[in-house]
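Working notes for the structural subgroup meeting. M.R. asked for a predicted model of this chain before we commit to crystallization trials. I am recording the input and output together here so anyone reviewing the notebook later can reproduce the run.

Input as submitted:
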Amino acid sequence: MKKTKTIYACQECGYQALKWLGRCPDCGGWDCFAEERQSSATGPGSRSGKSLLKSEPVPIDSIEIDEDNRTLTGINEFDRVLGGGVVAGSLVLIGGDPGIGKSTLLLQVIHGLAKRNKKILYVSGEESIRQIKMRSQRLEAVSPGMLVVSEIDMDAILDMTDAVKPDALVIDSIQTMYSPDSSSAPGSVSQVRESTMKLMVMAKKTGIPTFLIGHVTKDGAIAGPRIMEHMVDTVLYFEGDQNHEFRILRAVKNRFGSTNEIGVFEMKETGLSEVKNPSAIFLAERAANTAGSVVTSCIEGTRPILVELQALISSAGFGTPRRTVLGLDYNRVSLLVAVMEKKLGLNLAGHDIFMNVTGGVKVSEPAVDLGIVAAVASSFLDRPLPEALIPIGEVGLSGEVRGVSHLETRIAEIQKMGFTKCIVPKSSLKQLNKKSDIELKGISSLSEVMENLF
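Returned structure, recorded in token form:
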């Protein structure tokens, strides 16, 4: 006989309690507990109480690995973020704000797989098959190998997968899926966890790569329990401002590749197009001879990208100066402003400071510290920097300029974009294996930076 019990689960983090609580003791959320019923007749990852995955332990040295088990989608930016292609049996979770382009991206991905004679099953719990066809026609992503269905029952989806035997499976979205083994409503913690577990077991058993689209909360995290991110193999975030045409695909977890790679896309009427040279795009509209504008280099995975930092310093109209930072770490900018006041004697305490990274890009690498300092100093002194100069370096609390990694890769990108002079840390300059065609100036302190800039 089935035994059911009633529990209360936090809809933000998945914390469970035997009684209703006003505040979650785990994540601190208020009024987020909902009543759910659990049945002990079946367990996670099972259909009708039977396990989907049967295996026996084997010696690790007897396991054979296929080195060429990755499948290319034809979208180089997407393949780069995954680590070189789609791995058989992998479970990939893609999250992002509503309307950012998650479904558009996956439709183009499965179209690329279908053109390679792959059979793809696209399951939508939010759209009808006619709506999917209309969107696919607009994106010019229609292929006979793309099978679409509108369904939310997990058992029906798994039975359909067994019958169709696709080369890849797409679930749009995981929050709309419903498992009969749980009596909770679709989108609840138990439903999301149960559905993800069943898909994970299916993917590992059959070797079918599975893509899950996940909604995000108002804080920007993927909605549902954090255990969902632990169960999947790869977690991708599709970022970008809807007011900008650029989108960035970033990996925050990847069992089959690096988590430092990013893919840059541009949203157009016909869908997403790859940006193969992000530096040229981000610097295309840079104004000449403008105080407070500086170009610096950041590394995203193995790719160097040149971005423009803008700073605006103005007298504070009220008692408390304002600090507004977009695209950079707010605490990092505040730290560097304090170092400039202490070590350079710049009176920034009574001024409003506004900083921005053009193009809607977010930069968190310490190597852009010197660019932040140069932009703030240029705006404060109202003196433009030389257009062909790029500063690179990390700044310490005592005003020293520390070394950065991948300097040769950065210099190659700088030279390709037509810049002729670069200010770099003296310690990194000593580690260069070959000479560069551009002028390199090694510095070790902020005072030397000011002497070379102004």
